[in-house]
Amino acid sequence: MTEDCIFCKIVEGKIPSAKLYEDGDCIAFLDISPAVKGHTLVVPKKHHETLLDITEEGLKALMIKVRSIAKSIVDATSAEGFNLLQNNKKIAGQMIPHIHFHIIPRYPGDGQDFSWKHVKYGEGEMEEYKNSIKKRL
Length: 137
Hints:
It is a single chain. By secondary structure, the protein is an alpha+beta fold. It has three helices and five strands; from the N terminus they run αβββαββα. It has one domain: HIT-like (HIT family, subunit A). A five-stranded antiparallel sheet has the order 1-2-3-5-4, with helices on one face. Strand 1 and strand 2 form a beta hairpin.
């Protein structure tokens, strides 16, 4: 646990939450500032800042729970779909430096738009990116 982490404080029960699920490894609760009603956060109890910091074993276990919780949210809210978001570092929109997944149920006319601007690769750039990434896999 990290002393100044809001999610660690929620895990420890020092900050109240609208808890939906809890086991020995993770906790799920309604987001206090939801994109839409039913927006849920799934947080591992062990503090890891980003996706790159959590162990493979921890991530596998967490994702199984994320899937189960997402299904329950869709069933309970009659959502027509959902977004699963996970941001890493402030530049990418991570507000709390503790890995977490957003499950955002989607409804017709909910006013949310998670679209982004598309960029184009210059001549030969796609091949350069492909080769650079593949080298590291």
